[in-house]
Amino acid sequence: MKQEEIRKCTKVVELFRSMMDELGDMCVVYDEMFGFIVLEYYMDGYFENNSNYDNVEDLYHHLLDKWKFCWIVDKAKVNGTEEFEDYEPSLTKEQRAERDKVLAHFEAAFWQIQTE
Questions:
Q1: pLDDT for 48-62, tens place per residue?
Q2: Phi and psi (nearest 5°) for 81?
Q3: Per-residue pLDDT tens over the stretch 71-108
Q4: CA 95 – CA 52 distance, rounded (Å)
Q5: Which residue from 79, 81, 101, 83 is spatially nearest to 92, judged by alpha carbons?
Q6: Closest CA to 101 of 57, 71, 76
Q7: Is 16 exposed, middle or buried (CB count within 10 Å of its CB: 0-12, 13-18, 19+)?
């Protein structure tokens, strides 16, 4: 990977740092040979899932999708929704506005990372 791509990927990882810290069962590491590796679902001394990325866009979209999933699962618990297909319809207007605000923040931050 080129140094510029490594720098951008590192900034994307930092953009999602609070999510990873809150979850406590995932991290992103960098390796010269394999690029950025997302390690997820730490249990019994190992990670159950890993994904490798060598470009900022794919890494960003993976972490954004993870954030979206975790966010909607959290709101489903708050709303008392049990079935996955009911998660989105159960969101309140305020929750949708909250999500849109955070997504706009991520998109703006990602745009800035790409244009620096």
A1: 999 999 999 999 999
A2: -95, 130
A3: 999 999 999 999 989 999 999 999 999 999 999 999 99
A4: 32
A5: 79
A6: 71
A7: buried
